[in-house]
Design brief:
The protein is mostly helical and 478 residues long. Among the domains are: 95 residues, 434 Repressor (Amino-terminal Domain), CATH 1.10.260; 98 residues. The chain is 65% helix and 3% strand. A two-stranded antiparallel ribbon has the order 1-2. A hairpin with a 2-residue loop joins strand 1 and strand 2. Helix 14 packs antiparallel against helix 15 and helix 19 packs antiparallel against helix 20. It is globular. The two termini are 45 Å apart.
Length: 478
């Protein structure tokens, strides 16, 4: 009989956290230590010491294990965080943080939210980079700045792993750089934008925002080097990046920054004489206003977008969808129905210019999921839940985070229909997506769901299980 496996304490040290993740990935693939060691061409006894947190692994081993186990970079990111924590604690003359073993953490470091409230400037001064971490505060999800070192001390494995990048650039992103001198800058930046969109889909907005804003800055410097058509094309592309930056901030729950970047996108769309993009930005302003609960702004911006929309594009249909939700927020079901019908007719007609790429994702399923959200706002919860169920079934496989948003809203609809078991069960599915992507749209919806469920049905087993899962994935500030 083999020896029992050493119990790892991910909340105790960075090495335990790394070893626990390696063990979890290895178990998921059904590999023994010896089998994994043979696949990465490494000594099994040494690999076992790394997993048991007895020794710190080389970075190359973290990379090799991650590749074989399909960890999508998590072992490398945890290694980087462990390295940063070791460097900080070993800094000579650091009176505030004298050198000590990682396992010797005080109880106050494991539970005080005050330890999370370290600003980015303070983190920079200490040489330890800051990470944005979601916490539950008064039933809402808010993001606080926490150093890598503090993250590993203040959270368990589930919360730490919920931050995909741990404050460092994702390996798939690479370092954002200016185009090479012999490259076409427009083609280069267009390709970069596509890569960043893919990374957003994989890792969530907070892993991508710094790179997007960096590229916007690069384009600002490139303006002086271009003239004529090239400069106009650059301005149009810069507007597209600004709209993308707005979307990332909106998904991350920072509506102030989302508004700022939409304003920049609109300014640059007009400067680049891109009227289709300007109309799209007005539609996005309507969408953002709906998320912020501002019905009149949603209606005004949506109607402006409809008026501006060029025939042969999907822009009028997109705008009608967001206008409709504004009417629903005003409890005007008739106006909402009329706007959704306008959108459905335009999509059903299908006579779109193939050269127009704005809103190519718009279809009847997209309209249905937004109409379900409006039904929920109008108090028609059972109809909303059924609408979300249909839309989720028809959501393309690649739209992982959108599916999480729809699941969270479907759970809210079941809560409104007084169906706590269904609400909690579907909330669990949404939580898996929210924890992986750090989407504030998902996590905020789930935080509200949790407060309502616990206030009405705390004794329902499914509700209690959902509450425990949420508070494990998103630390509470209470």
């Amino acid at each position: 009989m083999g020896q029992p496996r050493k119990m790892l304490r991910p909340d105790r040290s960075a090495r335990d956290l790394w070893g626990a993740e390696l063990r979890a990935l290895r178990d998921r693939h059904g590999l023994s230590l010896a089998e994994l060691a043979s696949r990465i061409y490494y000594d099994a006894s040494h690999l076992g010491k790394f997993e048991r947190a007895e020794r710190k692994p080389p970075r190359g081993i973290a990379e090799a294990c991650d590749q074989v186990l399909g960890g999508t970079g998590v072992l490398v990111r945890l290694w980087d965080a462990m390295q940063a924590a070791s460097r900080h604690e070993a800094t000579p003359g650091n009176a505030a943080n004298p050198p000590r073993h990682e396992a010797n953490l005080g109880a106050d470091e494991a539970g005080l939210i005050s330890g999370l409230a370290i600003g980015t400037s303070a983190a920079a001064a200490s040489g330890d980079e800051a990470v944005s971490l979601p916490v539950l505060l008064d039933g809402k999800v808010v993001y606080v700045s926490v150093t890598r070192r503090a993250l590993l001390k203040l959270t368990g494995a589930s919360a730490a792993l919920a931050v995909p990048a741990l404050g460092a650039p994702t390996p798939a992103l690479g370092a954002p750089v200016a185009p090479a001198p012999d490259a076409n800058p427009i083609e280069h930046l267009t390709a970069v934008r596509r890569v960043l969109i893919d990374n957003d889909n994989l890792f969530g907005p907070r892993a991508v925002i710094p790179a997007v804003q960096h590229q916007i800055g690069v384009m600002g410097h490139l303006r002086d080097q271009l003239a004529g058509v090239d400069r106009r094309n650059l301005t149009q592309l810069r507007a597209q990046f600004a709209e993308f930056a707005s979307w990332l901030h909106q998904d991350a729950g920072d509506f102030t920054q989302a508004q700022f970047w939409l304003d920049r996108a609109l300014e640059w769309a007009y400067a680049g004489t891109d009227h289709d993009l300007a109309a799209y930005v007005f539609a996005r302003k309507a969408q953002l206003a709906g998320d912020m609960g501002d019905p009149m702004q949603a209606i005004d911006m949506g109607q402006a977008a409809e008026d501006m929309a060029r025939p042969g594009t999907r822009l009028a249909a997109i705008a009608a969808v967001y206008t409709a939700h504004g009417h629903a927020l005003r409890n005007d079901s008739d106006a909402a129905d009329r706007a959704y019908e306008r959108a459905r007719v335009l999509v059903a007609r299908g006579d779109f210019d193939p050269a127009s790429t704005w809103g190519i994702w718009l279809d009847q399923a997209y309209i249905s999921v937004h109409q379900a959200r409006s039904l929920h706002a109008l108090g028609q919860h059972e109809g909303a839940a059924a609408g979300f169920a249909t839309a989720i079934t028809n959501t393309p496989a690649g739209y992982h985070r959108d599916r999480g948003v729809y699941l969270a809203r479907q759970a809210a609809a079941h809560r409104g229909a007084r169906q706590p078991e269904q609400a909690a069960g579907i909330g669990m599915q949404a939580l898996a997506v929210g924890a992986a992507t750090q989407s504030a749209r998902i996590l905020t919806e789930l935080a509200t769901l949790d407060v309502d469920l616990m206030s009405r049905w705390p004794s329902v087993p499914e509700v209690a299980a959902f509450h425990q899962a949420l508070t494990s994935a998103v630390p509470s500030a209470a």
